[in-house]
Amino acid sequence: MEASDLVSIGMDIYQREQHMVPAAAKAWRLMVESAAGDQVVLQAVSAFRSLDYQAGIIRRKLESGQDIREILRVSAAPGYSEHHTGRAIDVTTPGSAVLEEAFEQSDAFAWLSENASRFGFSLSFPRENPYGVIYEPWHWAWRDPGKST
Ligand SMILES: [Zn+2]
What we know:
This protein is α+β, with helices and mostly antiparallel strands. The chain has a domain at 7-49 and 85-142: Muramoyl-pentapeptide Carboxypeptidase, domain 2. Helices cover 30% and strands 17% of the residues. It has 4 helices and 6 strands; from the N terminus they run ββαβααβαββ. A 4-stranded antiparallel sheet has the order 3-4-6-5, covered by helices on one side. It has a two-stranded antiparallel ribbon with strand order 1-2. Strand 1 and strand 2 (17-20) form a beta hairpin. The mean pLDDT is 94. Bound molecules: zinc ion. Residues 83, 88, 90, 139 line the site of zinc ion. Zinc ion binds at residues 83, 88, 90, 139.
């Protein structure tokens, strides 16, 4: 399901404008401010992604010769990415490799682990997750506290 009601959360680290659904965007802004108050910098890498955009990612990886099974361990198939919902965001911080497991050693990850739940964000793909997805310490999603899932 692709989100349609989206608002800007500003620029990502590549100077591309990023979007989330309004409630998630508001929670993200509050969380970034709160982290800044603790001298922790949270930066967006990627938030909402359309089905077309996701299809492009897969297509480029196939064209570069990667195996489809290997690709799908790392990138969700179009239609299955949590980024389509407008509630997920990939996060980085200055000095950390982007979208690398090493992010878990950053102050930002430690801060998120301790504080993100207060803003409704949680890690979607922890180590040994049941979804067959690689561990993604950078991928956080906002979950509507009014809903059970
Ligand atoms: Zn992600």
